[in-house]
Design brief:
Layout: H1 4-7, H2 22-33, E1 37-41, H3 48-55, E2 61-65, H4 72-82, E3 86-97, E4 100-112, H5 117-120, E5 126-130, E6 133-141, H6 145-154, E7 160-164, H7 171-186, E8 191-195, E9 214-218, H8 224-238, E10 240-241, H9 246-253, H10 257-270, E11 281-282, H11 285-311, H12 325-335, H13 338-343, E12 345-346, H14 347-357, H15 366-374, H16 376-382, E13 390-393, E14 398-401, H17 404-412, H18 415-421
Parallel strand pairs: 1-8, 1-9, 2-7, 7-8, 10-11
Antiparallel strand pairs: 3-4, 4-6, 5-6, 12-14, 13-14
Length: 428
């Protein structure tokens, strides 16, 4: 007996209809075997966390959730805390490197000691015994990748470190971690990084030394045959037959496995399937239509709030009148064809179309567009748009949607009504 939400839907737990895709799963397991850092990337709700849950037991990793306020010190501290390392005392330190103030954390850490007689006499660390077990106390700066690596090697750490939501970190922190990854590799301390973006070599843009040193695993695209396998697996678990509506659901989800899973779940609920059925139940088109309406309402309420936050822009001073580039960007987006949106909107095209409709078109300079696009993700995160909806791909100079549910929303909503309901900034 299985519950419907154990078989279908989006969950942080591994659901019953996880399917192995050789191009994705084999690449990930190959990375585990080759002892390399692994970067898993793709739009939201496309299976990044599920991939790690499928192939790694909880005992095989330490997981750290990144946030916009996280620093490298915060992340490194979290790793140490989860390992139950005994920090005897600690104090903040500040050092100046290249004119910049670096904040660190000097810590006296007690770790098990397995050295011989000669090692016992070394003066590099104090020794003590507790309940017959020898320990040594060592000073570490937990803000430094090398110090953390040495500490982890001392305690025979052999797990993977998973960094969830890497995209939430400030760009400077992402850059620093990209440099630190090279140091960790030297000590065979290996990371798995999960991030919402759609282009290759994102971290290599911050540190070219990572090229050929990491394995990148894109979780997209999802093929129609992959989505079909999900319902094949789910049929015997719930005794629910999707065969007559499968193509309709696939067309509705726009290659998003998250949307596909949710529509399957809600279709079951519409057909009064809450758990495994005694007799076969065929899912009908009306069940799918009910599911689509339910998910559109769910996604619409969130996305409209996100768009309202996205376009909000305050003047930095009483004398400044903003250009309101975010507002005009959304106007351009809502007027684009769905095909163009899925391909990505080119920077040059966005700028030209914004100038065509802008109330101060002569003031819209390439530098204004450059600033807007470079800060596209960080500005969304600062406005609590989670996950971010848009990302700027430097390699193709185009804006791409990285929230897979937003495609579903755009295809099914009344775009004119959405635009009409957005508050027009003052002065336009």
């Amino acid at each position: 007996m299985r519950l419907t939400n154990q078989v279908f839907g989006v969950s942080n737990e591994l659901i019953d209809t996880y399917i192995v895709r050789p191009k994705v799963d084999n690449l990930f397991t190959e990375g585990l075997q080759k002892n390399k850092h692994i970067i898993i990337y793709g739009a939201s709700k496309q299976g990044k966390t599920s991939l790690t849950n499928k192939h790694l037991d909880e005992s095989e990793y330490v997981k750290v959730n990144c946030s916009p306020s996280s620093t490298t010190l915060d992340l490194f501290n979290s790793i140490v805390r989860q390992l139950d390392v005994d920090i005897i005392e600690s104090k903040d330190t500040r050092t100046t490197v290249g004119g910049e103030i670096k904040i660190g954390l000097k810590a006296k850490i007690k770790i098990p000691f397995f050295g011989g007689t000669d090692a016992e006499t070394e003066a590099t660390a104090s020794r003590e015994k507790e309940k017959g077990v020898s320990f040594k106390v060592v000073d570490y700066n937990l803000a430094l990748a090398q110090d953390l690596s040495e500490l982890l090697k001392e305690i025979n750490f052999d797990k993977r470190i998973i960094l969830e939501n890497f995209h939430y970190l400030e760009e400077d922190v992402q850059k620093q971690l990209s440099i630190d990854l090279r140091i960790f590799e030297d000590y065979n301390i290996l990371f798995i990084i999960l991030g919402i973006w759609r282009e290759k070599n994102r971290l290599s843009q911050f540190n070219g030394d990572l090229v050929d040193r990491v394995i990148e695993v894109p979780v997209e695209p999802w093929e129609e045959s992959d989505l079909a396998k999900i319902t094949d697996v789910g049929l015997p678990l719930l005794n629910a037959d999707f065969s007559s509506v499968l193509e309709y659901i696939i067309e509705s989800c726009f290659d998003s496995v998250g949307v596909f899973q949710e529509i399957c779940k809600e279709s079951c609920y519409s057909a009064h399937i809450n758990r495994t059925q005694d007799e076969l139940v065929k899912i009908k088109k009306e069940n799918v239509d009910n599911a689509i309406e339910k998910k559109l309402n769910d996604y619409a309420s969130r996305h409209i709030r996100c768009l309202e936050s996205f376009i909000e822009q305050k003047a930095k001073s009483s004398d400044e009148v903003p250009l309101y580039i975010p507002y005009y960007f959304i106007k351009v987006l809502l007027d684009e064809s769905f095909d163009n949106i899925t391909l990505g909107l080119k920077r040059k095209s966005i700028q030209e179309k914004i100038k065509d409709i802008h109330h101060r078109s002569d003031n819209v300079r390439p530098s204004d567009m450059g600033y807007f696009l470079r800060n596209l993700v960080s500005s969304q995160i600062k406005k609590n748009i989670s996950p971010p909806i848009f990302d700027y791909d430097i390699s193709t100079t185009s804006v791409k949607i990285i929230d897979s549910t937003f495609y579903f929303f755009l295809k099914n909503c009344d775009r004119e009504e959405v635009l009409e309901n957005l508050m027009v900034p003052e002065g336009i």
